[in-house]
Each structure stands twice: as C-alpha cells, then as structure tokens.
Design a protein that fits this description.
Elements: H1 2-20, H2 28-33, H3 35-49, H4 53-60, H5 62-75, H6 80-94, H7 102-122, H8 127-149, H9 153-167, H10 182-191, H11 201-209, H12 241-280, H13 298-342, H14 351-369, H15 375-408, H16 417-442
Helix pairs in contact: 1-10, 1-12, 1-13, 3-11, 3-12, 3-15, 3-16, 4-5, 4-15, 5-13, 5-15, 6-7, 6-13, 6-15, 7-13, 7-14, 8-12, 8-13, 9-12, 10-15, 13-14, 15-16
Length: 444
C-alpha cells in the first residue's frame, strides 16, 4: 500500500484526473481489483512451498525465468527516478542549495535520500523489519493527511459527481485525448494497487514474515544483525493432520493481507483523485517535469495553509523516496535469489554477500540513470517494460500453481475452480490492456 502511494496514487491518477476530468475514473476499481487474484496467487506459491516466486518460475521453465529476469533487470534500471521525484518536493520546500538549478536541487536531495536509506538498510538488524516499519508510518501519515484535506468545502462539493463517475463513465473527456498520454494511462492502470514487477515483491515480503511454509526460511540481516542461514529451497506443505488444520488459517491470512494492500490502495487513490478533481482540475495544474510532486501540495494547502503545503511536500518526499528504499531491497533479493537458483556455482558465496553486492550495484546504477531525464519519463519507461512482464508472468503463474504445483499438493491445499477462473480473467484482462495500449499509442 505504501509502495503504491509513490507511483500511481500520487502521480499518474491525479495527472489524468486533473487533465481529462473524470473520464477515466471508472477504470480505477477494475485496475485495482484485477491485482487481487494475482497477489493471492503469488502469495499462495510462497505460502505452500516456502519458496520465492522466482524459484517457482525456474521450476516451471528456466528459459522463461531467465527472460523474465532480464525484463525485470531492464525495468528496474530507472527506479532511482522515484528518489528524484521525491527530490522535487524537497527542492520546492527548501530551494536549497541556493543558486542551483531546479534539476540540480532535485538531484541534490535525491542523492541525500538515497544515502540515508542505504545506511538504514546496511545498519539494520533484520532489513525487512526496518522497511516495514518505515512504510507503515508513511502510509498512516498519508491517509490522515488526505482525509483531512477531503473535508474542505470545495472537495465536499465535488464529491457527488466524483462518486457517480467511479461507476458510470463521465464520457467524453473534458479535453481532447492526446496519444502521448497512453503510456501514462497504462502506468496508472498497471500501478494501481502496485503493479508490474513490483507485484512479485509480495512473495519476498511473505517469506520474510514467515507465513506458511516460509517459517522454515531465514532472514536477510544487516551489518548489526546476526548471520542467518537461508535455505536454498523450501518444502511443499505436507499431507498430515497438523498441516490440514493450519492451512485454513494461512489462507485466511493471505486473503486478508492481500486485501489490506488492494482495498487500502483503492481508498487512498480515490482520495487523491477526488482532490485532483476538486483542486487541480479547475486551475489546470498537472504533475509533470521537475514539479512531479509539487502541484499536489494544494491537497494539504487548502486545509492547513502554508503549513499544510510544507507538510505535504515533506510527506511526498518521504513516500516517493521510500519507494527507492523498498525497491532497492526487493530487487537485490530477487537478483540474489535468481543467481543462487540459476547458477549453481554462485552458492560458493554466501547469500548475504550476494545481496550486498547487488544492493551496492543497484545504488550506483540508479544514481547514474536518474540523471538522464526528468523522473516522469523514466518512471513511464519502467512501467511499460514492467507491463510486458506482467502479461507474461501472469500466464506463467497460472500454469505454475494450477498445473505444476497442484499435482504435488495434498487435496486440501489444491487451488479451486474459483481461483482458476479469477486468475484466468486477470490474464485475459492484461492481454486486452496490452492490445488497447498499442492501439492508443500508435494508432490513435
């Protein structure tokens, strides 16, 4: 939930609403709900086996896993853009260093936030625990701030029309469609409730929580933590009395845990869209360029004045920059996990050593790539690559859980017909979205 606040919720949905009014709002609920079956299926594999989702893809097909890993690697070359997006807020807040250009100030704060978060990872005892606490705090602050801003008379006045447009398309758009916004629309849909390769992070978070069969795995620890042994592979849930009693509890937890992220994102994204419609759209303000997180400061400014604007810029900087924190950790885990599983000789080096190698490498790479362009285009490029991956790994996940894994599971743990139907619907929907995107982008 907190990770998604740094992408679709804060940037692209408000952009579309501020520019086109409520024309595309009806897509928000389906976009978020599509990810519920996908999240559940990703989590289910880890819960039942203790393995990560990439270990599952390698079991299904090593060439497929290699291709997905390459796509993932390309997708996350530019996630430093989230740190620079957060830097736009801090630059607007401080105008420091004085005399520097807007881009220079943005990059100054972006590098500062990267240095802070890298230190937090390196010096923690259990890395995931630190990340989870940071993200929980930021998500809570954001919800409180958005709710208070939504009580402004302008926002309340706009609410009835807005609520209607959630379910009934407010068509046509309030201004002519521009084909270059097709990628922004795709990004908004893909990132609603998290999306793209970010969705795969859920498997690694559940493993760190010790859910289901993951209880037998270890943790990735920081410099201050004790070294722990992480098992190369997990164990498929056993056909015994204890497991049959525990499994319903695990499944209920997975359903509830996935729902917190999905429905929490629906709630907060609707709030940012409502605020964009009531406050940004009438003034023609759009989140763009090196003001990507600046114009939304109107959200808090209408309620709390100048103090509210300052607070919003600080919060925006936090939950955009912490997207870098969460992503650099998760991608380092995935790279280490893949190298360990795909290249047997890599196991001669400890897991934690590989993790820190990729952590440093990704820090350097993203610090370089975020200087290439303003944050918006870099985030969009990452989203397009991630969406291609989503179409592929959704179909792979369908075969992984409902064909390969199902044969190995005891009857009480096998996925049912409803799970198969909902996951199939998700796969078809992503294929349709891909075709629609190509039409809007290249054949407007």
């Amino acid at each position: 939930m907190a990770l998604a606040q740094g992408s679709g919720e804060l940037i692209w949905w408000p952009y579309l609403i501020a520019k086109y009014g409520l024309a595309f709002l009806f897509l928000l609920l389906p976009a978020c709900l599509l990810q519920y079956p996908l999240n559940y299926q990703i989590g289910q594999y880890t819960l039942l086996t203790g393995e990560t989702i990439f270990q599952g893809f390698m079991r299904l097909s090593k060439p497929l896993a290699l291709f997905l890993w390459i796509l993932l690697t390309l997708s996350f070359l530019w996630f430093g853009a989230f740190a620079s997006a957060g830097g736009t807020a801090l630059a607007a807040l401080t105008h420091f260093p004085q005399g520097w250009s807007e881009k220079g100030q943005t990059l100054f704060w972006a590098y500062g936030s990267i240095a802070l978060f890298f230190s937090a990872i390196a010096l923690s005892k259990v890395i995931y625990t630190v990340i989870e606490k940071v993200m929980m705090g930021i998500a809570l602050i954001t919800v409180v701030g958005l709710l208070s801003s939504s009580l402004h008379p302008k926002v309340i006045h706009a609410a009835p029309v807005f609520i209607k447009a959630i379910f009934i398309p407010a068509w046509p758009p309030m201004r002519p469609w521009e084909s270059q916004d097709a990628t922004k629309l795709l990004t908004a849909i893909t990132f609603a409730g998290l999306g793209g390769f970010w969705t795969l992070f859920y498997s690694y978070w559940l493993r760190e929580k010790g859910v289901g069969m993951s209880r037998y795995m270890g943790h990735v620890t920081g410099i201050l933590g004790k070294k722990e042994v992480l098992l190369d592979t997990g164990f498929i849930i056993a056909d015994d009395g204890n497991s049959s009693k525990e499994f319903p509890k695990w499944r209920r937890f997975l359903l509830a845990d996935s729902a917190v992220g999905i429905f929490g994102n629906i709630f907060t994204t609707l709030l940012t869209c409502l605020l964009a419609f009531a406050l940004l759209h009438p003034e023609g303000l759009l989140p763009d360029g090196y003001e990507l997180a600046v114009v939304q400061s109107r959200f808090f400014e209408v309620s709390w004045g100048a103090i509210g604007k300052i607070l919003f810029l600080f919060v925006a900087a936090a939950f955009l920059s912490d997207t870098w924190l969460t992503t650099v950790d998760a991608v380092s885990r995935i790279h280490t996990d893949f190298v360990y599983g795909f290249f047997p000789k890599a196991k001669r080096i400890p897991f934690r050593t590989w993790y820190y190698f990729f952590l440093v490498l990704l820090t350097v790479v993203t610090s370089l790539t975020m200087t290439f362009e303003a944050p918006g285009p870099l985030i969009l490029l990452s989203a397009v690559i991630g969406f291609i991956g989503t179409v592929i790994f959704s179909i792979a996940l369908l075969f992984l859980n409902h064909r390969m894994l199902a044969k190995e599971l005891p009857p009480f743990a096998r996925p049912g017909k409803w799970a198969l139907a909902l996951m199939s619907l998700t796969c078809v929907a992503y294929l349709v979205l891909a075709i629609t995107y190509l039409k809007l982008r290249f054949f407007p």
